Amino acid sequence: MTKLWNSYRYLILRRTTQFGVLFLYFGANAWGWTLLMGNLSSSLFLGIVPLSDPYALLQMVAAGAILATDLLVGAFIVTLFYLLIGGRSFCSWVCPINIVTDAAALLRRKLGVDAISKKQPASRNMRYWVLALSLVLSFAMGITAFEFISPISMLHRGIVFGLGFGWAAMLIIFLLDLFVLKNGWCGHICPLGGFYSIVGKLSLIRVHHNEENCTLCMKCKVVCPEQQVLYMIGKESIPVLSGECTNCARCIEVCDDDALGFSIRGLAKNKKTGEKNESNK
Amino acid sequence: MENKATSDRRKFILNMARGAGITALGGFVWSAYVSEVTASGLILRPPGAIKESNFLKTCIKCGLCVEACPYNTLLLAKPGDHKPLGTPYFIPRDIPCYMCPDIPCVPVCPTGALSESSVTTNGVLDIYKADMGLAIVDKESCIAFWGIQCDACYRACPILGKAITIEYNRNERTGKHAFLTPVVHADACIGCGLCEKACVTEKPAIFVLPNEVAMGRVGSHYIKGWDKNDEKRLEDAKEIKSETKISEKSAVDSLNSGSGDLY
């Protein structure tokens, strides 16, 4: 039991927050709860604190919309929050699409799809191009371009207000991730993930690698949805500084040798120099 | 060595071209899709909604207005509804807007897509300032125009006597009865849809359409001379001089050049 908890503790916590947030939104619409109203695009916390999607705000700026104070305050709070806890923490701890793509990734590993063909036909930088394209289209059309096609909004809105044909979009993403491209949606295309990757470059909470404990089993790289961020495994004791890391902590819980753990950015650096000083002695 | 440099350069150019190709393909499909799905003119917005083209860029699709509505009037468009995805609307025949005096759906809007100031008179919320649409009567299917007495829409109207009035006319067919027919007045009607909900015909003979669909536009070159306010527009009017040069040749030859000049 302890073993089970140890190797799935973050996964369980993540699913709890993901479902918990959706449940609060659902309750607000269905039973009139006032703790968290609205949805992930924009919401009202405790009936006073506005929270808004900063990427939607960015599209509105590009589209030339007049910005309301509540929206600016809400987007500021959300940006500040993810600056602290890690930009793409949104992706793995809140976003409901993560559940769909994690399921696809799990099934993909079980079916051994990558053993048959290892080549990935697309670049992970595509998301930054999609991000740029969404802003260009928003500007050219005077409309929040991604918000009208976003499967993320489709899903969370669908769960709170009714899904309609939205299940088809979920199926497309599931099949894309399963057969076409490993981590296709979250790791290659999603511009919201791209946006939070940029925010996350500066964020404080980081996964830290301790090379001395590493036995090179590479279990962490197998489960990681953004493998490129773990380039230092078995090579250097440094924190994962890429904004593309989602802080999902799967690597931490699959590691049997205590070679990975969460750390706070500034402190991690001090610890590192501390270690170096010791080895110099 | 030189060969390798050339092939690297070729690779680079090919990659750039590939990127440009995919971007163009994606961009066109994306923009075509978005412009199609947002082109739905037949949609009724909540009270206080700003102009549709601004609404589409300002609404963040959070559904706070939907949650605030005590009558479950408002819905968020989901895939398959054939409405701009995620934006709030209502179907009056199912649930009309009951015109709450405190308009709970408007102040909760975080982006100002539902504008509080547009439904405020002297600092107090005023639902009568809302303008969601306009009720239209189809004379063919309205049974009052057949001579059958029905004033369901008139009675249902919350702005009774102003937004809908009843007009009396002699029924020539029977020679002894009256037509009591409903007339909608655009200046008072706010498009709540209670009339549409109340209409007794199978498909409503009175229904709300967005103003942009229901109304025409005169243009600025007509001025009501009997209306003092409208007449004021003349004060700022500037003279527009336009001259058309008459072609002397065609005036002379107009009868000789066939039918071309006649049209």
Protein traits:
heterodimer, A: 281 residues, mainly alpha, Alpha-Beta Plaits, two-stranded antiparallel sheet, 14 helices, 5 strands, disordered C terminus, B: alpha+beta, 3 domains, two-stranded antiparallel ribbon, 8 strands, 27% helix, extended
Cα distance spanning the termini of chain A: 42 Å
Q: Which value, in Å, is the CA radius of gyration of chain B? A: 28 Å
CATH fold node name of the largest domain in chain B: Alpha-Beta Plaits
What is the overall number of helices of chain A?
A: 14
Helix content of chain B: 25-40%
Distance between the termini of chain B: 73 Å
Question: What general outline of chain B do the C-alpha atoms trace?
Answer: extended
Q: Regarding CATH, which class of the largest domain in chain B?
A: Alpha Beta
Widest β-sheet, arrangement of strands of chain A: 1-2-3
Strand content of chain B: 5-15%
The CATH architecture of the largest domain in chain B would be 2-Layer Sandwich
Poorly predicted sequence stretches spanning 5 or more consecutive residues of chain A: 268-281
Structural class of chain A: mainly alpha
Total domains of chain B: 3
Structure, explained:
The complex is a heterodimer of chains A (281) and B (263). Chain A is mainly α and 281 residues long. Chain A folds into two domains: 2-199, no CATH class; 206-280, Alpha-Beta Plaits (2-Layer Sandwich), CATH 3.30.70.20. Helices cover 59% and strands 8% of the residues of chain A. Chain A has 14 helices and five strands. Chain A has helices at 2-31, 54-63, 69-85, 89-94, 97-111, 113-116, 126-141, 151-161, 166-180, 184-189, 191-200, 219-223, 250-254, 265-280; strands at residues 36-39, 42-45, 49-52, 205-209, 260-264. In chain A, the strands form two sheets. Chain A has a three-stranded antiparallel sheet with strand order 1-2-3. In chain A, strands 4-5 form a two-stranded antiparallel ribbon. In chain A, helix 1 crosses helix 8 (151-161) and helix 2 crosses helix 7 (126-141). The radius of gyration of chain A is 20 Å and the shape is globular. Residues 268-281 of chain A have low confidence and may be disordered. Chain B has three domains: 1-32; 42-132, Alpha-Beta Plaits (2-Layer Sandwich); 133-218, 2-Layer Sandwich (Alpha-Beta Plaits). Helix content of chain B is 27%, strand content 12%. In chain B, the strands form four sheets. A two-stranded antiparallel ribbon of chain B has the order 1-2. In chain B, strands 3-4 form a two-stranded antiparallel sheet. A two-stranded antiparallel sheet of chain B has the order 5-8. Chain B is extended. The chains are: A mainly alpha (281), B alpha+beta (263). The interface between A and B is large, with 52 and 37 residues.
